[in-house]
Structures are given as structure tokens and as C-alpha cells.
Specification:
CATH superfamily of the largest domain: Medium-chain alcohol dehydrogenases, catalytic domain
Helix content: 25-40%
Low-confidence stretches: none
CATH architecture of the largest domain: Alpha-Beta Complex
Oligomer: single chain
Largest sheet: 7 strands, mixed
Number of helices: 11
Bound molecules: nicotinamide-adenine-dinucleotide, zinc ion
CATH class of the largest domain: Alpha Beta
Amino acid sequence: MAPSIPKTQMAMVFDKPNGPLEYREIPVPTPGPDEILINVKYSGVCHTDLHAWHGDWPLDTKLPLVGGHEGAGVVVAAGNQVTNFQIGDYAGIKWLNGSCLSCEFCKRGGEPNCAGALLSGYTVDGSFQQYAIAKAIHAAPIPKSCDLAQVAPILCAGITVYKALKTSEARPGEFVTIVGAGGGLGSLAVQYAKAMGLRPIGIDGGDEKAALVKKLGGEYFVDFTKSKDVVQEVLDYTEGGSHAVLNLSASSGPLNASVKYVRPMGTVVVVGLPPDAQISSDVFTHVIRSVSIKGSYVGNRADTDEAIDFFARGLVQVPIQVRELKDLAAVYEAMEQGKIAGRVVLKCSD
Ligand code: NAD
Ligand code: ZN
């Protein structure tokens, strides 16, 4: 029997950047021919959602906006062109809600780089609501064995760090330094790195994050709030530099340091998106040490399946704290202050 779908639902909405975050009744959207309607059970809160609310980036959001792009739930309706989901399947809302699939970048697997990309919780309404729309071809298939609260953060944080680790080209046995290791992306990066045979070193601030990073498999932790010299500490521990670095923090401060402790022939991957930030590297040293700086932006559909598969096989756990959907403003406040270890997941529907 087809599930009954209400006409209205509750959502977290804002009307202008930094405007009030309102828990509001809005209509349940109707899926188009190539779309599915997902009853969102849980949604992770990513730092990107906070950047979107602040209007931090040189890319406008839709307004009014329902944020959120780590939504896990159940398919309750599908358009007549949809062939890859059935009613009742588990599905995930990712940052990349849709892309054209026919441009140069989509054809090469660079779906996030598509100029026509639709972004959940940014250019289209996202997962901070009870019912959300996704293009069926881009929605993430989630195995029924997965816990929906736990799997939600895989849909952005997991995919992103897994792809960034691949982009780093670090090989098993090599060091990867994870900047922002105690946050949402970082706490997953430590575990994907470990599962991929790498040696994760975490950088973050405070004892709670130090304990979390160690618990998740971090081999060494540098507390940036206490270390006398972060660069030297990484160089010493790795005996000459980290083979790869993932910059996952939302601050610009640590970016230029990462270029100094990467090992010769190593790669710095830039993932975190602090507003108005620059990364710079002294040309002589850059050339002589032959280091690379690469950007990495979420992942494509294959990265999505692979990242979820690591989770489904129990290789990564998601350190979550579950809160109510209407608590979003308080979650943003804690995130701003760097007080969230791991990821907060909002309960969107029963
Ligand atoms: P988060 O707030 O959960 O985690 C960030 C962590 O960085 C925190 O633990 C914080 O304590 C730590 N940190 C702050 N200053 C630091 C410093 N100087 N050195 C080391 N650590 C420091 O945020 P998140 O949800 O993990 O997102 C992180 C960033 O990644 C955001 O800018 C977000 O927009 C971006 N992001 C990018 C992509 C992409 O595809 N490139 C995808 C998702 C998120
Ligand atoms: Zn995200």
C-alpha cells in the first residue's frame, strides 16, 4: 500500500542570510518525473549549512531556504521516469542533488564540477524538513542494514573525506595528517584513513577532541591550542613530513602551515571552505620539494556507493549526538565555537 503523505510538514527555514532560523509549517513538495520524495528520518548538520546561513561564500543560496544535505530516510513517492528506487527503499539526500550528466565534467566522473549542479540545502531545499526531494539518479541508495541516524553523516562528511583521501594518492603505510580531526568530517577521515591502511595524525583543539581522535584510530594528536610549534611537531613525529594532509577545518589559519609540514613529493588536499581564505606556498621550496596542492569537492555517485559500503561493512563508525530538528540554532552556536566533537544529527521525523 502506498504510504499516506501529508499536505504540510515541519521544516527549519530562514528567509535571509543570518536571519531567524524558524521551525515552520510548509507544504510537502511534489516530486517531478525524475525525482523521488524522501521521508527524512535524520539529517546530519554540516559546517557547510552554517556557511550557507551566514552567506559566507560567493555563491547565492535560494531564499527562503531549508538547509541540510546529510538526509537519510525512506522513499515515499517517485516520479514516473524513476527506475532505480522503489517505494519503501532507504535513500539519502547528498549535497549534490542533481547534475546534467552530459557535460564534459559529468562524463568524466566530475559530477560535483558540473555547472548545472543542484545543491541540497543551498540552491534547492535540503534535508532539515520531514519530506525532501532528490533527483533519483543522484540520490544515494542506502542498504536496509544501515541505521539511518548513523548513516546520515556519511552522505556528505563520509563521501567527502573518502574522496579527499583518494585524491591525496597516499599509499598504505603512509602518514596522512587530518586538520580538524575532531569535527564532523575529521572524525570520519581518521577512520577511513585507517581502513585504507594509512597512518592518521589528527590536529584539533581540546581534550575531548584529542580523546575522540585517539579512540577512532588516530596514531598521534597535535593540540593546536597547546602546541608550541604545530609544524615542527608534525615534522618530528613523521620524521620528515606527512605524505598527505587533509585540510578539513573551517578556519584559514592552519592552511599555510600544512604546506610546510607536508613531505617532499606529498600532497596537501584542501577541503574546508573558510570564507575569503587563501593558501600560499613559497615557490622555491614548493618546486624543490615537489609538493602538490589539490582541491577536493564532495564526490561522485561511485564515491558515494564506496563510502557507504565502508560504513555498511562496519569499517567506520559515526560519532553522533542526536538532537531535535527545532534545535538547529543551538547546534550552529556550538559548531561556531568549535564545541562539537563528531557530528550532530537532527531527528526530522518519527
Ligand atoms: P566541524 O565544525 O564539524 O569541524 C571543524 C573542526 O576544525 C572542529 O573540530 C574545529 O575544532 C577544528 N578546527 C578549528 N580551527 C582549527 C585549527 N586551527 N587547527 C585544527 N583544527 C581546527 O566542520 P565540518 O562539518 O567537519 O566541516 C569542515 C569544513 O569543510 C567546512 O568549511 C565545510 O564547509 C567544509 N566542507 C567541504 C566539503 C567539500 O566538498 N570540499 C564538504 C563538506 C564540508
Ligand atoms: Zn556537508
